[in-house]
Amino acid sequence: MSRKTFSSASRLALIVIGFLAVFGGGPASAAVEDEIKARIQHPAEVCVMGTPCAASIVLASVNTGPKDPQMVYETFCFACHGSGVNNSPVYGNVEAWAPRIAKGMDALYESAINGFNNNAMPAKGLCADCSPDDIKATVDYLVKAAQPAP
User: Fold this and answer.
1) Which of 1, 54, 101, 139 could form a disulfide with 47 if both were Cys (CB 3.0 to 4.6 A apart)?
2) Are residues 51 and 77 in the same domain?
3) Same domain (yes/no): 56, 75
4) pTM value?
């Protein structure tokens, strides 16, 4: 078998062709470069105040009035009170809620608003834009579900 060898001029020509293929200018390579940037771009976007993406964040945090207690429960409380995480009383479990209800509603409100048990129950259940009244209404919702059947 014979092995084909390239002359210095052939090697140089291959290097130049390769260089132009990779780094060649012009509209075609700019389009390819844009495609590559789009494919490798990070999925998260940084929003800066004054940009269109930040406007929706600001609007979302504006308090638009009382929140629906069921929505607050399903959005923030369910993660723990739906499964009993951190020994939290499960929604509708009369036995688990009874000793807590016996402490009084003010104690329940206090725990829900400010947190409880070394933050095992985080303040406001992590609903940062919930008002104290929203939290109280959600506690009432949970307590109502934990009442013994008549």
Assistant:
1) 54
2) no
3) no
4) 0.59
